[in-house]
Amino acid sequence: MMSAKSVCYSQIHPLRGVSDLVNIRFIMSNFGQTTDNESFNSVAPLESLYPDLAHNTVSNATTDALNPEPSVSTRIIYWYHPDYVGNVDLVTDLNQEAYEFYLYNPWGESLYHWESGSSSWNSPYRFNSKEFDAETGMHYYGARYHHLKLSVWMSVDPLANNAPNRTPYRTFFNNPIRFTDPDGKWEVDANGNLIAEKGDNAQTLADFQGISYSQALKQMKDQGYTTTRIGEYDVLNLQVGDVVTLDNNYTQSLEDANAGKVFVMTEAEMDNLTISEYYELMEDLSDKYNCWGSCIEGSMNNDAIEPGDGIGDGDVFDAHLSSNYMDAQGNYKFGETVIRFANSKGVTHGAVFYGKNKAGEIYVYTKNGWLAYPRFMKLDDLIQQIPSYGIPTGLTSEESGYYNKNTR
Questions:
Q1: How many angstroms separate the CA atoms of 350 and 356, rounded?
Q2: Residue 204 contacts by C-beta under 8 Å, 6 or more apart in sequence?
Q3: How many helices (H) and strands (E) does the chain have?
Q4: Which residues contact 376 (CB under 8 A, 6 or more apart)?
Q5: What is residue 50's DSSP assignment?
Q6: Burial class of residue 402, CB neighbours in 10 A (0-12, 13-18, 19+)
Q7: Signed CA dihedral, 44, 49, 55, 58: sign only
Q8: Are 243 and 193 in contact (CB under 8 A)?
């Protein structure tokens, strides 16, 4: 039984950061999933990342005659493991054991719930990582309650009159596979496009991209959006449901790939390549580029990313970062911050920071191979889909793995 004075901590932690989850492998295997042994076994012990965990245990907690229970130093920690849309699928405890496992339908209704039975505590954070209200049986999104069986909001959008052609109770644009709704106010396209919702304006666009208000306003005007002068300010005429598209060197690289200006192949085409065909294609790189080259070329001077802008050696990529970049220290810049990936064998991949939504999810520009199309995707999705890349890792243990251009 947990002491009344025990402190319970819950933290988001990626599955790959746990070192020995034998029973997690068992659970996942029952659902047709497998795990990467190298990714699991090559990471550092949990206590090396959080040294205080080794000391704040029940065994060394102080007791006395008046207080026979363990002291407040006892810590019970649970880790949340979200999927690509933020659903908490797996919860593990401090001993790296599976504690709870959830499956949901796309609208949030629980399909399956497994628990270890080692404690009476249940995770309050579930679908979309939102809090489950046991009294109402709904998820609380901050602005409204979501009914997981009816798949609707339980209250009207305060600005429903701005979108009279849509029901004010609809969730996720009626497409929960493609859209998420982090706080019940606005939605984010899985491809990185912004879907204007209540309160979105030039300032929120500026915040997403890490640019100034005037730059965001000009960007919208250049795309045909108009403004209305109210007092001293130009107010953007942005309606709920409008799609904000971005025009820069990264989006241009995708347009060039779609237009055949750079050699790329679909995933299906690459899967059908023989080894000899692959090596034959890789003999000439003048019509291709890869992740490292596009990161440096795109972020350094906002230059166009073109065929031939490849860097074939991870050491050369690291040398660029060491000479021309510095640790971002949390100051991520849209289209400028380079993200370095590494696993136990060394540097593996590079991507570019492409904004952060209201839920705190990071989008990246990435090119996952010389032959692949450039893509815009969530950082968490990239880590989950290609686990061999590892995670953002610095050149040294003191650095974060996120790098901005050196201004010194």
A1: 18
A2: none
A3: 11, 22
A4: 191, 192, 250, 254, 354, 363, 364, 365, 366
A5: S
A6: buried
A7: negative
A8: yes
Structure tokens at 375: 């893509």
| Site of tokens 């750079």 | 262
Q: How far apart are CA 312 and CA 314, in angstroms?
A: 7
Per the confidence metrics, is the pTM higher than 0.85? no
Question: pLDDT tens, 203-254?
Answer: 777 777 777 778 878 878 887 888 777 666 666 787 777 777 777 888 889 9
User: Quick check: helix, strand or coil at residue 261?
Assistant: coil
Please return the burial class of 356, using the count of CB atoms within 10 Å of its CB with bins 0-12, 13-18 and 19+: middle
> Which residue's entry shows tokens 């108009």?
226
CB-based contacts of 312: which residues, under 8 Å, 6+ apart?
285, 290
Sign of the dihedral defined by the CA atoms of residues 181, 182, 184, 189, in that order: negative
Structure tokens at 36: 């990467």
Q: Where are the beta strands (DSSP E) in 302-370?
A: 325-327, 338-343, 346-356, 362-367
| Residue keyed to tokens 């959008």 | 157
Residues facing residue 125 across a β-bridge: 131
